[in-house]
Amino acid sequence: MCKLLFKFTVVTWFVLSTSMMNIVSVQAGEPEFKLMNGKVDIGTFNGWRRFHSTCHVCHGQDALGSSFGPNLIDSLKTMDYQTFIETVTDGRQVTSASGEVSVMPAFGKDPNVAKHLDDIYRFLTARAKGGLAPGRPKK
Question: How far apart are CA 33 and CA 122, in angstroms?
Answer without folding.
Answer: 5
